[in-house]
Design a protein that fits this description.
Blueprint lengths: L1 E6 L9 E7 L6 E2 L4 E6 L4 E5 L4 E6 L6 E3 L3 E7 L8 E2 L52 H10 L17 H9 L2 H5 L19 H16 L2 E9 L1 H18 L5 H12 L7 E4 L4 E4 L5 E3 L1 E3 L2 E3 L2 E2 L7 H16 L13 E5 L18 E5 L3 E7 L2 E15 L5 H16 L8
Parallel strand pairs: 1-9, 13-17, 17-18
Antiparallel strand pairs: 1-8, 2-4, 2-7, 3-6, 4-5, 6-8, 10-20, 11-12, 13-16, 14-15, 18-20, 19-20
Length: 426
Amino acid sequence: MGTHVIKMPDIGEGIAEVELSQWHVKVGDLVVEDQVLADVMTDKAMVDIPSPVHGKVIALGGQPGEVMAVGSVLISIEVEGAGNLKESAAPAPAATKEAPAAPKVEAAVESKPAAAAAPRSAPVCQGPMVAREADERPLASPAVRKHALDLGIQLRLVRGTGPAGRVLHEDLDAYLAQGQSNASAPATAAYAQRHDEEQIQVIGMRRKIAQRMQDATRRAAHFSYVEEIDVTAIEELRSHLNEKHGASRGKLTLLPFLVRALVVALRDFPQMNARYDDEAQVITRLGAVHVGVATQSDVGLMVPVVRHAEARSLWDSAAEISRLANAARNGKASRDELSGSTITLTSLGALGGIVSTPVLNLPEVAIVGVNKIVERPMVIKGQVVIRKMMNLSSSFDHRVVDGMDAALFIQAIRGLIEQPATLFVE
């Protein structure tokens, strides 16, 4: 028998260190070639680290949340034969192999200690209920944990059907469907005193989000501008286009119209489609409009990028927004799809509220926030009429963008939205 020592691989992009987000194996586990051993977190995405050999895990090189240098020892595996005489790096992630497949962005979870982590190759559990030890922490995303708490469900009683037994939203639905929640909690639980506490380690995607938000608010001089927009006409156009072409071309939401409005408005306000390198003191204005579309997932906020929005039709933009959003929510967006934006569009959908103060996606200098659409009485030409109204809550980097320019930029978007024919007049 010998020992095969695997080092943290060079993931590329000049990255010198990465965060160990989650182990999928523990000491004593038998692993096979290509089995995922761990997830590591770069500045851009979560990346799977596969095993290059068959063998038995005899040592782990770090704990979840630990930042490890490229080239440091990741894991040691006992193998048949002499093993590797020299420490070698783990196989490169999929994106660096000959096939240009992008690395998989896994949904980050709150990790248990390595000794309690389940190998990904374990059989997927079937059925809605399982008995776990009282102190055993089931794998689940923060959104699933909150949903279970709201429903009064004990996660340890729910059998997970996701990778490594992870509890999914569908598992909670299956649990409720079989009436198990009533059996696991007394009828008066809604009024019972609670003294439980839960500590959640901030690692992986959540740590990266926290760092980026803190960095953005610390480095940029944020200021916000809110403008009210009458979206009645564009909503009528959208409804008409969906009725006429929805079956053949796909349904349109408001977002592709807003992307188009950004593209047209940026022709007159190129200073908004820019990146600011504050260390080099250089502003780079770009002709290409790469629109980041902020997307909520179970692991937190991601910003997949609609590239070259200036060259896309409404339906092309709509299809790309939908594809990228699904990829982000399902943990399949690549690093390239999550980087390179020049301006960001953020929307909370139906929960958009009246006003928001979005945080810049550095190094960009502008972010346009969409609030919910509401029907309100408005006075037009002396008459009170019902109109569909929506606020744009946008933020800018005051180091680069003057207040007057920001106001004029949003007013230009307002004019395009309120007179939607102008979106397509060249």
